[in-house]
Amino acid sequence: MYEQSLPVGPYRDNVSAEFPIVESVAGPAFGHESELRKRIATARKVVVKIGSSSLTGPDFTVDVAKIDRIVDALQARMSRNSDIIVVSSGAIAAGMGPLGLVQRPTDLATRQAAAAVGQVYLAHQWGLSFARYGRSIGQVLLTAADAGQRDRARNAQNTIDRLRQLRSVPIINENDTVATTEARFGDNDRLSAIVANLVRADALVLLSDVDGLYDKNPVDPTARFISEVRDGNDLKGVIAGSGGVVGTGGMATKVSAARLASRGGIPVLLTSAENIGPALDKADVGTVFHPKENSLNAWKFWALYAADTAGTLKLDAGAVRAVTSGGTSLLAVGITEIEGDFHSGEIVDIIGPEGEIIGRGEVAYDSRTLKPMLGKHSHELPEGMHRPVVHADYLSNYATRA
């Protein structure tokens, strides 16, 4: 899992819902690690992501004992009046054994076939395990398209909320059976960060097969354990890597997901599935990631990391400086080019003069109306076309996300 250098600068992630323009419910960052761990330990709404290796056995089938142990810990936390939303990997891995596959498939059709089989086995065992406590489960399968379109994301959000209200545990996974390579979240670590923002979670717990973040492969005796991450400076020199035999993620994707969630104001605990008991009890294990003090509100998080985009606006250098300084709307005078056939109210990418990615925003005009407006000051435009192209409230930039 520790094979490649972890990017510590800005990195582009692609998350959705009808998010209101409100500040993050997660609140400001805490100064001390102990305070942050207490906050995670007492969080009311918690998303827990569990990796494939923590749910399946060496024969590539669902491991009943592993799932029962996980459910015991989840139930213990729920008995303390916390809501739990589970993001579960393992569909492809769980389908490999029943299909007689001895290694993770690489072609799309076989992966989707394995997911179709494994999802049934996995959901069945989750249901049986929670039934021991008189709880039902609800399976929610999402694709990137579900997150990228407001109405579909809002429906997913409402479904998850209603399941919780009915005391049923939402079990969420990427819909590997239908998701194509071009329209995937990429891994369930990232999906968990998106879901955490979607449901406005108070904490995210990422569980894998490593007890926390190290600066290199933990089998190396010189590896240093990192107990907390406040910003990118704490990740300098960290060497992470990709997933194992049955998973698609790895430590790099988990750190990326943790930083993504923290950008939305959500504190994160990263540890192993073996530590699920103490992780959900006192949160005194693993690595914690502090939420950003300048966290994005829910709508801006969605627009920046999840929304489908319909076109591109290219800005001059002055406009780039203005919109990245924060609180400034984008006017037509600063736009030099547009691409795409978009409508008013759609999300567009915003790039700089050299093609560098600046951010995203909700455009106030359709592309046909906007073209003759480019480069013009407001007083040069006809009546009714003086409003900003992208209002500051609906403009989100990448400048402060690292």
TrEMBL record:
Binding site for substrate: S89, D176, N188
Pathway, per record: Amino-acid biosynthesis; L-proline biosynthesis; L-glutamate 5-semialdehyde from L-glutamate: step 1/2
Domain PUA: 311-390
Keyword Nuclease in record: no
Entry's EC annotation: 2.7.2.11
Main localization of the protein described in the UniProt heading: cytoplasm
Gene Ontology, cellular component aspect: cytosol
Name of the featured protein: Glutamate 5-kinase
Family named by the database record: Belongs to the glutamate 5-kinase family.
Catalytic activity: L-glutamate + ATP = L-glutamyl 5-phosphate + ADP
GO biological process: L-proline biosynthetic process
Superkingdom of origin organism: Bacteria
A GO term, aspect molecular function: glutamate 5-kinase activity
InterPro entries, A to Z: AceGlu_kinase-like_sf, Asp/Glu/Uridylate_kinase, G5K_ProB, Glu/AcGlu_kinase, Glu_5kinase, Glu_5kinase/COase_Synthase, Glutamate_5-kinase_CS, PUA
